[in-house]
Amino acid sequence: MSARAPIRGYRAGFLFAVALLSAVAGFTLWTEVRTGQQVDALVREALDREQLIGRIRVDVFSLESAIEAHIRARDDEERQAANAVMEDILESIRRSTEASTRNLPPGEKAAWQRFNASCRTLADQTRATAVLSLRQEAERARHHLAERIRPLLLEVDTQATQLAQENSAETQELVANLAAMRVRTTMLGAGVTLVAVLVSLLVGWHITSVLRRQEGTIQRQIEELGRANQELDSFTRRVAHDLMGPLAPLKGYLTLIRRTGAVQDDGALEMLAQCESSAVRMGELIEALLRFCRAGTRGERTSAELDTTVSTVLLELSQTAAAQGVALERELEPGVRVDCPNQLLQVVARNLVSNAVKYTAGRPSPSVSVCVASVGSEAVLEVKDNGMGMSAATRSSLFQPFFRAPEARGLPGHGLGLATAKRLVEAHGGTLSVESQEGVGTTMTVRFPRLSPVVAALPELAPAARKVAP
């Protein structure tokens, strides 16, 4: 419970840091987009107002020319044309002023309202001048133009210039405020990011410390387990060796009693034979146990040819296979050398081939195929049969000591052969795998690192100098 609580705390801290970083990234992105949109809108509005102010100033100067043209007109037709031009200019000024005052903040409307009032006064005075011109009172119209309209034109132009300056200054101020807000947002995001990074570093440091402590604990436990296994193997070897001491004379005495003829009763002779058989089986079991214990440690570093060893084993088992009607097929590649003593290779090969023969006998057309080959940098021994096969549950426990499959309970054996073979193979850097299907057969595959011919020919080299063949 105490170990799980810190893990949950570290996980929560890590998720908190990730959430902070995600929130900062999202907030910064949203702020940048929003600020950019606001800046674009402000710049667009400022440009539109600047354009409207410029158009009003142009219309104001055009209006003076239109009024003079109306006053100089020689007939009614020219006056009507000049009057239409003036009305168009006045309507353009009206539309421009209305458009420029739309969506203005309350604090900015006062200046624009004064500007609109000046524009309306200018329009009224312009129409009054046009009336005088239509009455053919040119002098009064010119006087009205000089005394009333031109000062208004200058006033409107001056107000337009001030509005343009104010519009530019306000736009710059707003953009500066937005830029300052962006800087504050960026600083806030940087601070939160720094906090998240510090939290992440703290969590990572704590997790690294926990993992380092756990790694040390696991390493110590592995070392203790190795020492315990070594002590157990040593104890088992001593016990097995001590058991062989009283068992040997027991077998000898039983054999002598049976052969001397001192016992004539048939029942007693049968019991002696059973005792002798039991003593033999006990001796075989103890020897198998000794081989299993020795199999976990590597023997002397000598190499042997796998094909030669397998040939010797096949020669020994050929008569047993023939007696049980099992055909032995072989395909042995010559010169396949591995870093394992010959006698240990024989133990492995004998276990695999004898098991294949034993569990194949009695099947229709029984056969066992033995193959030795070089595959890349590996030496491979494959023993394949068409025997009874194994279930998945049997395969999962196949290499456990003293394990006997349910389908093999009626056959002789101690349950140590495959366990011994696997320990021998792994002690010399190899692997032993099994593939099997019930009613179809079994394939046992042993893989050893293959020695190159140069290394195999130099036994005096140190073990560390041996190289696996490329």
From TrEMBL:
One of its GO terms (biological process) is osmosensory signaling via phosphorelay pathway. One of its GO terms (molecular function) is phosphorelay sensor kinase activity. SUPFAM superfamilies: ATPase domain of HSP90 chaperone/DNA topoisomerase II/histidine kinase, Homodimeric domain of signal transducing histidine kinase. Residues 238-452 form the Histidine kinase domain. The keyword Isomerase does not apply. The keyword Transferase applies. Signal peptide: none annotated. This is histidine kinase.
